[in-house]
Specification:
Distance between the termini: 35 Å
Structural class: alpha/beta
Number of strands: 13
CATH class of the largest domain: Alpha Beta
Strand content: 15-25%
Helix content: 25-40%
Radius of gyration: 20 Å
Number of domains: 2
Mean pLDDT: 96
Strand order of the largest sheet: 8-9-7-10-13-12-11
CATH architecture of the largest domain: 3-Layer(aba) Sandwich
CATH superfamily of the largest domain: NAD(P)-binding Rossmann-like Domain
């Protein structure tokens, strides 16, 4: 059994990670750490976990990463940006593996992190070692890693959509425009006026225009030498990411060939579903799953590629992807604990 600690277990991503791990045949939860809920049982915080067998780990404890590293095989950090770089050290990594669901180790260039996140970074010496945890792109490196930087939810949806066409050199990368929409759980569980029910319900808006932190992450992983345009939007739903992406085609190419490029790129990927027909990807069909759905279109009038894609921001965009990475790191079947199908309606 893989002995596990979750630091930040009571946030949306942390509790979803825990829920999935409770159905994982090789996972044993040792510690649930929470700054706000020390001493409280996790099933008192999330009644949905009532009856879960945590074998004595049900009470939230204070974060003690040094202790956890000696007692556990892997530590998941589900914390806001800026905390992980203070906690993860070489000594910790000598004892255990770490999967960080935040942004602290996603960038190879520390100056990019500081520019976009406006906070200090305290683990620059580990940046070169950290592996970007997108299995469909970095599978072999993930298997050997001690430190995984789990991707952002918007980034996962955008990168998986574009990667086949960037690699095939079929699009003008300077023309990429990404319109991405997220459910409110993407903002986390902290109190914020913009996430209150009356602010979100019956509303739909763009936010952080030309300034969202996932923009340079997408550019870095796709290897772009030109900037792209990324605009996030807030949907009045709990969970899900939907993207609509536009790019100029470099030459005239039939839609069947465009779909073939994506199908060939992802032919061995069990969590990527490329749709048939002319329907758009929809968040309702991926809710509660680790699947990523995409469909591909061509606007013949403008010679543009159009992609729609969807995923669950708390699963393939966070906790599920983290487990996918853990499975690779420990030599398990990649889908272990992740075979659940969607919840509908």
């Amino acid at each position: 059994m893989i002995k596990i600690a979750i630091i930040g277990a009571t946030g949306y991503s942390g509790q979803e990670l825990l829920r999935l791990l409770l159905g994982h045949s090789e996972a044993k939860i040792k510690y649930l750490a929470s700054k706000r809920y020390v001493g409280q049982k996790i099933n008192d915080i999330y009644k949905s976990l009532e009856g879960a067998n945590l074998n004595g780990a049900e009470v939230c404890v204070e974060e003690d990463i040094e202790k956890f590293s000696k007692d556990c095989d892997v530590i998941f950090l589900a914390l806001p940006s800026g905390f992980a770089s203070k906690l993860i050290t070489e000594e910790v990594l000598k004892n255990t593996k770490v999967i960080d669901l935040g942004a602290d180790f996603r960038f190879k260039n520390i100056n990019v992190y500081k520019e976009w996140y406006k906070i200090e970074h305290f683990g620059e010496d580990l940046l070169s070692e950290a592996v970007y945890g997108l299995p469909e792109i970095n599978r072999e490196a993930i298997k050997k890693a001690r430190l995984i930087a789990n991707p952002g939810c918007y980034s996962t949806c955008s990168i998986l959509s574009l990667a086949p066409f960037v690699k095939a050199n079929t699009i003008d990368t300077s023309s990429i425009v990404i319109n991405a929409c997220s459910g409110t759980s993407g903002a986390g569980r902290g109190l914020a006026t913009s996430a209150l029910f009356c602010e979100v319900n019956e509303n739909f808006k763009a936010y952080k225009i030309a300034s969202h932190r996932h923009t340079p992450e997408i550019e870095q992983v796709l290897g772009l030498d030109v900037p792209l345009t990324f605009t996030p939007h807030l949907l009045p739903v709990n969970r899900g990411i939907l993207t609509t992406i536009y790019a100029d085609l470099r030459f005239d190419i039939e839609i069947d060939k465009l779909k073939e490029i994506a199908q060939d790129f992802y032919k061995s990927e069990q969590f990527v579903r490329i749709m048939e027909g002319d329907g758009s990807a929809e968040i309702r069909w991926v809710r509660g799953t680790n699947y990523f759905d995409m469909n591909i279109f061509k606007d013949s009038r403008t010679n543009k590629l159009i992609i729609t894609s969807a995923l669950d921001n708390l699963i393939k965009g966070a906790g599920g992807q983290a487990i996918q990475n853990m499975n690779l790191m420990f030599g398990l079947e990649e889908n272990t604990g992740l075979n659940n199908m969607g919840v509908f309606p």
